[in-house]
Amino acid sequence: MVELKRTRLSVRREQALLLGVMLPADKHRAAKPLAELASLARTAGARVVGEVVQQLKRFHPSTWIGRGKAQEVHDRAKSLDADVVICDGDLSPAQVRNLEKITDTKVVDRSELILDIFATHARTKQARLQVELAQLEYTYPRLARMWTHLSRYEGGIGTRGPGEMQLETDRRLVQRRIRDLKRELGRIDARRQREVKSRGECFKVGIVGYTNAGKSTLMNALTDAGVRVEDQLFATLDTKTRRWDLGDHGEALLSDTVGFIRHLPHHLVASFKATLEEATLADLLLHIVDISRADAIEQADAVMEVLEEIGCRDKRILAVFNKVDAADDETALHILSERFRNGVTVSALKKQGLDRLTEAVVAELQRDFAELVVTFPSSDGRLAAFLFEKGDVLERDDQDTVTQMRVKLHRRFLADLSEHDGVEVRVSDGKEEPRAERY
Ligand SMILES: Nc1nc2c(ncn2[C@@H]2O[C@H](COP(=O)(O)OP(=O)(O)OP(=O)(O)O)[C@@H](O)[C@H]2O)c(=O)[nH]1
Ligand SMILES: [Mg+2]
Question: How high is the pLDDT of residue 137?
Fold first, then answer.
């Protein structure tokens, strides 16, 4: 039995050797294949001391990379004095074990690295519980000595028996903790859903996008939210909602939330579903794309994949091409403008293009309203009161027995009108403008 080196997976202050595999499908990343892993590693607090990349047709089933390459990684790790090898992919527990054995160095995979970042950045109670749940489900079963991580739930570790009995106790403890966490998260989620409902009829706009795309910067530029902005990945792990003043058009509620990344670990998506949903419960999503990046298109695609995974395929989405001030190559912008028609180009940092963005959002908000001519018996005082309360009455014409009102009303109330007797409703604005696309 190999003694695993993975007693703790945090890579803070450790010297990291990055390890990547280029499959034939990864050609677009050829220029800097490990750039993203390097920023993840740095965000987690590691110092990157070297990189090894192997071109492969497929992953090696037992060692992830080829065996010869693994030996090379061993030598590099020793000469660079690396504490940890961080792999740009998700390895099976057996692959980790075998790779650790050959390299004689701690091995951490990409999901574990992301989970570690989430654990360090989580500030709210909900975020902390969500991370813990994801770690219990993904990381802990892969640790060499699970119980050292569980000791805070149950007495000291000295009282436990060895071997199988230990493993059994650990498993039961993990199961119990998972159950408790799910229950507690369920309670927080129910409270949050009540909160979202109580926000009622206000137009809800959610900001989504790849991590570090500038979501929080945009949130701060549009409202006085004062959200933390950092040039690092996953600075934001919870959701903040603020009122956004739309001038003559009233206001919307704007939500900023956790960013997406390609191959977001599945356990994180599941655990953070409630947080992700908060933004996605919106009437409109602003998809922020950092167009100053060479891989802007791949990032945009990854975001669309996660949106699909959390059930947002049919949402209205408005693309926002951010960081135009830093974009020196317009190719990505051209391609993305073709793909996401109605996109708006901005610089959240320099506050450029925000008026156009506001106009585009107002146009979306307006589409939820219909201008109607409603004719009804004058005796129906309830209907008149309803129209005044819920709508914007533009004209009123009282005749002997009937009243006619021209009113702007949210489409969700159309059904309510038909419940009244003797009402005739005519849509007075027939024009259909192009709208934010549904994917
Ligand atoms: N040049 C430039 N930089 C920007 C712009 N918008 C944001 N940034 C920078 O991009 C970095 C990330 O910004 P954030 O607003 O924290 O990004 P985020 O999408 O909220 O990131 P996470 O919460 O970590 O997912 C910061 O260093 C910002 O200053 C922009 O329009 N132009
Ligand atoms: Mg943020």
Answer: 85
